Amino acid sequence: METIRNKLKDASVQGLLLILAFVTAFAAILIVSAQPVVLTLGVFAGSAWDVPSPESQKLIDQAVQYFEEQNPGIRVKYQSGIQASDYSLWLTDQAALGNLPDVFMILPDDFSLLASTNALLNLNTCLQEDQALSKDDFYPIAFQAGQYEKNCYALPFESNPELMFANTTILDEHQIPLKKDGWSLDEFYEICRKVSSDDSGSHAPIANYSWLDAVNAWQCHVFNEGKKSVNLTQDPFRQAFSYARSINSMLDDFALEEQSFDDGKTAFSTMTVAQYRTYKPYPWRIKRLSAFDWEAVPMPGSAQGGYISCQSLLMGISAHTPYKEASWKLLKCFCADKKIQESIYDYSQGVSVLKNAEIMEDADSGLDNALLSKVMHSQNENADLQLQNTAMEQLSSRLEAMMHSEEDTDLALMNVQDQVNLYLSGQIQ
Known about the structure:
By secondary structure, this protein is an alpha/beta fold. It is built from 16 helices and ten strands. The chain has helices at residues 2-34, 56-70, 84-96, 111-116, 124-129, 140-143, 168-173, 185-197, 211-217, 235-249, 273-279, 324-336, 338-347, 369-376, 390-403, 409-424; strands at 37-42, 74-78, 103-106, 147-148, 151-152, 155-167, 204-206, 266-272, 294-297, 310-317. Strands 1, 2, 3, 6, 7, 8, 9 and 10 form an eight-stranded mixed β-sheet that branches. Strands 4-5 form a two-stranded antiparallel ribbon. The longest helix is centred in the N-terminal third of the chain and has 33 residues, at 2-34. It is globular, with a radius of gyration of 28 Å.
């Protein structure tokens, strides 16, 4: 009888111990689940566009604070003080250590390497499953920048498209009306010819018009299928290059000091939005160019749907993040939230990547939604030509030299094409 009592007593103790263990484990689970998820964010100080950006930190802090308010179970931490010039090296070091942030900014020149080395999470599934976000919410030229081999590995955060700037003082002297929607290629050529040779007082036509500007205006695809080779002997490319060469030949009669747009001596200049906003008084209230009037218009020939040069600052998710769902929420906050995207115009120098984000037009800036929307609806089919690699450097330097030489165009283009394709195929390092 005593033995039975002892057994029952032992069973009761064991039961209590099991209950206590279960309660302890459950409490531990509750404690752990109550702890916030901590996401790491990779960002840099300053501008991605090589212009002063003293308030860029405010944009990051505002986005983080807004995100944490909307997601009380998630906290975000980041290392401050990394300069834009040091950011690529810092990110490379983090990748080598297997310590990439959960979500991080990606400079244009770094994207292809990160995507090709499986450092970035493929976002196709996230986009397909998220009913609140579509690629159509973004401007096509911006969304395209985060594509690699037809997959999405990053979302755009901020873009910096190229515009044409007209010295309206010179145009008025030559009785040439400003065309706010931009000029056709033929119109632009005739204006350049007129201002450089008009009896009323000649001016240099343009400060900087590159072969790539002409190629984009002609809507040439420089790369062949798969982007493993370039085709410089196609008729559209030959015509575009000859056009750019003709524009630049008009400068031969002008000394270098007479080709300065800054000094009001040149009718046109190409400039990015970030450069334009730095030149204009907003936000530093220092007007560098005050001796003449000037306005921004779309690049010649780049009607809606055409090609322009445009770089985009991207953001992606580490392929090895343990917090995929939370990271996607943070990525969307930066790249797809209307409030944060509209703040870009307040604290940075680029352009929002969202179609529905509006800007508060500054009276001194001259940029408005109509102009920026028109430009951002363009395409960037030759974006890879802006990447810093050996093949593209060879291509650009050779073509720039040809712009100012008397080489036979057909023969020279064939030689450049053969050389660049050897680099692209890996036969020359």
